[in-house]
Task: inverse folding
């Protein structure tokens, strides 16, 4: 029986694939769906932080299929759309995203793609019907399908570079800090003496997809990177390193370096030198923040809400570095009943949080927070309401984030660690200042008329006196 | 939905079993008796009404829809024998698109064009493609479009299997306002055990037989001339069989929700008949019959 999900924070497979393709420089998505399927993804993204710098929103080419295309088949409409797109949009790779309608009707998109490829155009297609899965599914499948077909449309010799690594698992847009995180992980891996195919953002692009076969290693930083990584292993015998999350803090950087060293040759001295620098930098800045961390009582009890990778990444840092106690971790990845991944991160999660929940239903998440009674929430803007209700601070770390523009700010690595501390201290200070201001206005006699407000203020006074000792 | 104008009857059955022939002869017989009749072919092959209109060209509803122009009733309908209004829904070429959605779109379009208000029929017959392969083909028995369905079947197992599938669809939709079953039209009846098989089948499924149509050379000949038996051989015994059938369908208001057999039950039932036919063909004499 179907159930109501309040404010689900995941789109469908088509949306995941669209988010993915539109962040690959040089790639042009062509949606084969009815009008609205692509735009709804645009609105969902627009409501949160940051847009896409390429073909997004109304500028995404699409077939906007109608009733007659369902009845008589939409393949010829798709042919027309691909040809028109190639005429007006310069792309290095055109990626046809097939939707539910196309899957139901059974349009022979493969034949259509072959026809255009035979004319010398770089076109690949993928089936990402919404009923197949959510946006995480869309991300992994569109990448796997592109990597399977790209050799046929962008021919190049395989020339393995022993220092080149592919990185997957960070879904553009789904992690609000994806761009900054990719830049940071690239910086770190380069610090280890490696070269990186990031695929997305200004440093990535179609060239990375073509060169993916030349890598010596693929690192999947979440379970959603597994499928494209395994595809490269199957086709080109590139070893795969599965990590539960991106690293945060110098200690996790060292652990990452060790596991890479277990797969490929890296220069140990170079890595040690780099890590020493990073550790010194981290120590310096954390020392600078130590009084703020202590004065603002950052080692509180918390509930974490976000995709699995984000929860593991943040949770490990909060417990190990800040000494926090995580009452509960809420995993918001959209999982299918028969979802199968090699990575089973349940052990990591058990080490992080007292209770683990899997849901993307706002109502359920609110109920969890209500029952766990944390002192702080790390989640999305959707948890703001319950945080306000319980008068506890919220730090927005997962999708969606409504009232911020996040471009290249990171939440992983060393830079991400520092900017996370900045954010946490800022929110905690602001929260404390607001309480103080409420207390002062109470003392001055403002707003005493309402008994409800008075009792709230009295509660706040009690809390504040606890915080300030 | 507004009150229906005329009786709306869906006729289903396995492909090639004689649905279109039977439906066209029923339409012709009803028209001959003075009724206003519409026959709508709901099959991408669009050959349901061929024998009513002498095989003349008739653009299908979906052909017109594909061209995207404004559609008028006169563009997609033609009057055939005795004024039967012939319409073909049409559909995509085989292997492309979604024929089920096509049937749905065509029926909706006919309603939007106020076909029934304009023509004021006494009877509307929907001749629907073979088995109920997907939701689209169940449209004529869903949503109150028709209130009764008949199924054409021979005594062949696969034809009865298709009939049983239709019973499943009726069983599903009837409680929420879909059509009920008027009966089984036993077609291609030959001497011997054929009637008995169909009779046993209707008994097992809680349905009834609307009429028996014998296998006849008259049907084949008339079709070759592009006509119904009613038109080509009006005085033949076969024409009278169709007239009787039409009369029964016109009057019958005894509609039922069938009890379709489960897959295993149907197979077991067929096996029993297989054994019985073997005995009959080989002259095996049962114990009781020997006395």
Result:
């Amino acid at each position: 029986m179907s159930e109501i999900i309040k404010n689900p924070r995941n789109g469908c497979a088509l949306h995941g694939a669209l988010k993915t393709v539109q962040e690959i420089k040089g790639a042009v998505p062509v949606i084969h769906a009815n009008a609205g399927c692509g735009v709804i993804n645009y609105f969902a993204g627009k409501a949160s932080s940051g847009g896409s710098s390429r073909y997004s929103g109304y500028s995404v080419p699409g077939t906007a299929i109608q009733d007659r295309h369902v009845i008589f088949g939409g393949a010829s409409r798709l042919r027309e759309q691909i040809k028109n797109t190639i005429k007006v949009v310069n792309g290095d790779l055109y990626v046809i995203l097939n939707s539910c309608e196309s899957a139901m009707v059974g349009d022979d998109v493969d034949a259509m793609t072959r026809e255009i490829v035979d004319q010398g155009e770089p076109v690949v297609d993928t089936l990402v019907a919404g009923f197949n899965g959510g946006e995480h599914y869309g991300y992994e499948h569109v990448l796997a399908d592109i990597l399977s077909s790209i050799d046929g449309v962008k021919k190049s010799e395989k020339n393995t570079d022993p220092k080149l690594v592919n990185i997957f698992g960070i879904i553009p847009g789904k992690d609000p800090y994806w761009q900054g995180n990719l830049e940071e992980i690239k910086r770190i891996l380069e610090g280890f003496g490696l070269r990186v195919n990031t695929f997305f953002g200004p440093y990535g692009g179609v060239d990375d997809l073509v060169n993916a076969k030349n890598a010596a290693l693929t690192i999947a930083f979440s379970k959603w990177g597994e499928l494209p990584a395994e595809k490269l292993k199957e086709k080109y015998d590139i070893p795969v390193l599965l990590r539960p999350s991106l690293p945060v803090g110098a200690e996790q950087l060292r652990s990452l370096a060790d596991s890479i060293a277990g797969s490929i040759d890296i220069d140990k001295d170079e890595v040690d030198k780099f890590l020493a620098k990073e550790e010194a930098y981290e120590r310096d800045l954390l020392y600078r923040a130590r009084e703020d961390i202590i004065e603002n009582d950052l080692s509180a009890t918390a509930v974490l809400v976000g995709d699995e990778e984000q929860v593991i990444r943040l949770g490990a840092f909060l417990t190990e570095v800040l000494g926090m106690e995580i009452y509960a971790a809420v995993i918001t990845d959209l999982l299918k009943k028969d979802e199968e991944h090699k990575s089973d991160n349940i052990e990591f999660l058990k080490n992080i949080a007292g209770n683990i929940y899997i849901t993307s239903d706002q109502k359920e998440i609110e109920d969890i927070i209500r029952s766990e009674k944390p002192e702080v929430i790390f989640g999305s803007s959707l948890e703001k309401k319950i945080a306000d209700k319980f008068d506890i601070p919220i730090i927005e770390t997962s999708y969606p984030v409504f009232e911020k523009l996040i471009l290249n700010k990171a939440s992983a690595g060393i830079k991400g660690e520092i900017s996370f501390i900045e954010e946490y201290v800022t929110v905690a200070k602001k929260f404390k200042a607001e309480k103080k201001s409420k207390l002062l206005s109470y003392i001055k006699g403002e707003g005493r008329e309402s008994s409800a407000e008075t009792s709230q203020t009295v509660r706040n006074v009690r809390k504040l006196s606890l915080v300030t000792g | 939905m507004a009150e229906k104008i005329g009786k709306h009857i869906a006729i289903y059955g396995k492909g090639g079993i004689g649905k279109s022939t039977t439906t066209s002869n029923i339409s012709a017989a009803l028209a001959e008796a003075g009724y206003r009749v519409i026959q709508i072919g709901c099959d991408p092959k669009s050959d349901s009404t061929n024998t009513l209109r002498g095989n003349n060209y008739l653009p299908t509803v979906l052909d017109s829809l594909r061209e995207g122009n404004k559609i008028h009733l006169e563009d997609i309908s033609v009057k055939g024998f005795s004024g039967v209004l012939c319409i073909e829904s049409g559909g995509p070429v085989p292997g492309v698109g979604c024929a089920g959605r096509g049937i749905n779109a065509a029926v909706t379009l006919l309603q939007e064009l106020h076909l029934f208000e304009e023509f004021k029929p006494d009877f509307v017959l929907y001749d629907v493609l073979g088995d109920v392969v997907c939701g689209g083909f169940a449209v004529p028995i869903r949503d109150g479009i028709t209130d009764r369905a008949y199924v054409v079947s021979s005594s062949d197992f696969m034809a009865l299997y298709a009939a049983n599938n239709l019973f499943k669809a009726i069983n599903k939709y009837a409680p929420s306002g879909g059509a009920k079953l008027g009966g089984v039209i036993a077609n291609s009846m030959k001497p011997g055990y054929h009637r008995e098989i169909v009779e046993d089948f209707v008994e097992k499924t809680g349905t009834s037989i609307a009429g028996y149509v014998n296998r006849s050379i008259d049907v084949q000949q008339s079709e070759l001339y592009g006509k119904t038996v009613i038109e080509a051989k009006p005085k033949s015994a076969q024409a009278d069989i169709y007239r009787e059938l039409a009369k029964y369908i016109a009057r019958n208001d005894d509609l039922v929700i069938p009890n379709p057999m489960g897959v295993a039950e149907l197979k077991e039932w067929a096996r029993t008949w297989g054994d019985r036919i073997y005995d009959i063909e080989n002259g095996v004499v049962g114990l009781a019959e020997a006395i």
Notes: Chain B has a mean pLDDT of 91. The domain at 7-284 of chain B is CATH 3.40.50.300 (Rossmann fold). Chain B has one domain: 7-284.
